[in-house]
Amino acid sequence: MILFINACVKTESRTRKIAEKLLEKLGMDVTEVRLTEIEFPVTSEAFLGKRDCDILNRDYSHPYYDLAKQFAKADTIVIAAPYWDLSFPAVLKQYIEHINVLGITFEYSKEGTPIGLCNAQKLYYVMTAGGAYVPEEFGFGYIKALAQNFYGIKDVELIKATGLDIQGNDAELILKDCISQLERSVIQ
Fold first, then answer.
1. What percentage of residues in the chain have a pLDDT greater than 90?
2. Domain range spanning residue 31?
3. What's the pLDDT score for residue 182?
4. What percentage of the chain exceeds 70 in pLDDT?
5. DSSP readout, 16-27?
6. φ, ψ for residue 9 (rounded to 5)?
7. In this structure, what CATH number is given to the domain that contains residue 113?
8. How would residue 29 be classed by pLDDT, with cut points 50, 70 and 90?
9. pLDDT for the residue numbered 90
10. CA angle 131, 124, 147 (to 5 degrees)
11. What's the CA angle centered on 175, arms 163 and 170, to 5 degrees?
12. Count of CB atoms within 10 A of residue 178's CB?
């Protein structure tokens, strides 16, 4: 099963268009999580206290943990997130904070090293940017580090279309080129 984490806010999202073509190419059953439709709990001291207690007791029965369980069980993960303000939409950060659960998506060794508990062998990160300046350490670099170092997902691939809003660039052509490239390179 593919878990499609959709952090696209706009109805006509260019990022989502690329992600949908990727999902077609992968050809597996897809479960979509639309992050804009989730009401995440407020991260208050009381909330963190309850969460810490649950984790200490290994009690993951509250529905709050369903997103982390879903993430851990997925065979393949596709994240679609436009590049905003040197990162990604805040709703993706909220999602990550809520799936990063000790005992579900990772645990620690006796030495304190994270050990991934996720089933996925591959994570695709799909992004678009209006400009051309997209340093990897912002946005994708963060997701890649979490996937590889915490979740145990070693194969992480970036699929991107940049320069979409630069004067004189043909945004539709850039998108088509990106989609053509992924159709040739993605192995099912």
1. 85
2. 2-185
3. 87
4. 96
5. HHHHHHHHHHH-
6. -95, -40
7. 3.40.50.360
8. very high
9. 93
10. 105
11. 55
12. 22
Q: Is the pLDDT of residue 113 over 70?
A: yes
Structure tokens at 76: 């393949």
Nearest to 18 by CA among 124, 89, 121: 124
Q: Find the helix or strand (DSSP H, E) in which 87 lies.
A: none
The answer for 27, left when phi > 0, alpha when psi is -120 to 50, beta otherwise, is: left
Residues contacting 32, CB < 8 A, separation 6+: 4, 6
Q: The whole model's pTM is what? A: 0.93
Residue whose tokens read 């200490």: 56
pLDDT of residue 86: 81
In terms of Cα–Cα distance, which of 17, 18, 16, 19 is closest to 2?
19
* Nearest C-alpha neighbor of 120 from the set 81, 93, 102, 147: 147
Please tell me the distance from the alpha carbon of residue 18 to that of residue 33, in angstroms, as a whole number: 16
Residue at 39: amino acid letter: E
The total of structural domains in the chain comes to 1
| Confidence band for 53, pLDDT divided at 50, 70 and 90 | very high
